[in-house]
Design brief:
By secondary structure, this protein is mainly beta. The protein has one helix at residues 2-15; strands spanning 23-32, 45-59, 76-81, 94-97, 100-109, 115-122.
Length: 125
């Protein structure tokens, strides 16, 4: 009940009051099998997966009292509604955004299970 209420109110804010701060992202990644191929020294690719979503992607940790242990000054904080993302983000995923590619370094959830907080790090090209 509270989860639906939180997601509904934040989604409305994303559409109206926060619309200038909201960005979209996509992620496409390969799925590997668990069988290591010793000849090629790789795991075979068995498929791919993609997901997308939107949220406030480029927040800052600069004023937070508690920062992630592997925090870097250039990292960004993303706040995304779980019901606005078409898949489950994983550490190591690369999000393609209007401001470039960002790797998910860390993921946390709020107590209601409605919002993910992701630590993003710019991927150098």
């Amino acid at each position: 009940m509270i989860k639906n209420k939180v997601q509904s109110k934040v989604a409305k804010a994303f559409d109206k009051k926060l619309s200038d701060a909201v960005d979209t992202f996509t992620c496409e990644k390969l799925i590997y099998s668990g069988d290591f191929d010793f000849e090629t020294q790789t795991y075979p690719i068995v498929g791919d997966e993609s997901y997308s979503g939107r949220g406030v992607l480029f927040g800052s940790y600069l004023k937070d009292m508690v920062k992630p242990t592997d925090y870097q000054v250039t990292d960004s904080k993303a706040i995304v509604l779980q019901n606005e993302v078409t898949g489950i983000p994983q550490i190591g995923d690369v999000w393609v955004t209007s401001k470039g590619d960002f790797k998910v370094v860390n993921i946390g959830a709020d107590p209601t299970g409605s919002i993910w907080t992701c630590q993003l790090r710019k991927v150098s090209t």
